[in-house]
Amino acid sequence: MQIQIEILTKKGCGLCVDAKEIVERVLPDFPVTLKMIDIESNSDLFEKYKAKIPVVRICLLYTSPSPRDLSTSRMPSSA
Questions:
Q1: Among the four residues 5, 60, 75, 77, which has the most C-beta atoms within 10 Å?
Q2: How far apart are the C-alpha atoms of 35 and 59, rounded to whole Å?
Q3: From CA 37, how far away is CA 39, in angstroms rounded?
Q4: Helix (H, G, I), strand (E, B) or coil at 75
Q5: What confidence tens digit (pLDDT) does each residue in 6-27 have?
């Protein structure tokens, strides 16, 4: 499992800077990547979040084991 933290931001957002600093404190402790997303570069995001930033989203990215690794696979065998 990989964790990605996204912070939605825009120019001049002091609270966004604060949110980034707080998140960066825990980055060394976890397998996390941080992605800053400028809502001004996407009209849909801007309309949805313009009055709500900073928004911090945590995304859990799961990868399934290789189908050849039957010892850890949770999928039933087709054989």
A1: 5
A2: 11
A3: 6
A4: coil
A5: 999 999 999 999 999 999 998 8
